[in-house]
Amino acid sequence: MFLSEAETEARLDDLRRQRAALDRAIAEHELYLDLGRRLARPGAGVEPARAAPAPVEAPAPRAVPEAPRTEPARAPVPEPEAAPVPPPDGSPAPAGAAGRQEGRRLMAAAEEILAEAGRPMHAAEIWERLAARGLTLPGHDPVAALNTRLWKRAKGGTIFHRLGDAVYGLAS
Q: For labelling alongside 127, which of 56, 57, 79, 161 has CA 20 to 30 A away?
């Protein structure tokens, strides 16, 4: 009825792999959910793709006229802002430029790491070396976030080439 030590270790390893896969899936879903919420904000200029207009009901006739209703004032919710990084020519940086620069810096470092290794690497290995260089990624699972970024760039025909699940190399 009891498991041997080797069987227990094998089961633990399997459960750890399953947990890591679940953590990656959760992080990806949270990322997509957050992105959808950002795009659906009023004033963002982008409507969600699947949002259907709410049905409009005709008001019921009333015998007594109502006083006009006023909605309570809502305080604006401040959005967190990244510290702007001005371009080298001194002109003001466009909105979101700091995040794009950080993303480019991260991808350039990933490219350097793959070039130095001279072999394809798993996103977790790449992340370990990026973290050792002091780079960060937002979110609960930085490996999943890095994998998503590399996967998107590999699909776009850049220098990265996807060789398997979360395994990337440099295109020839």
A: 79
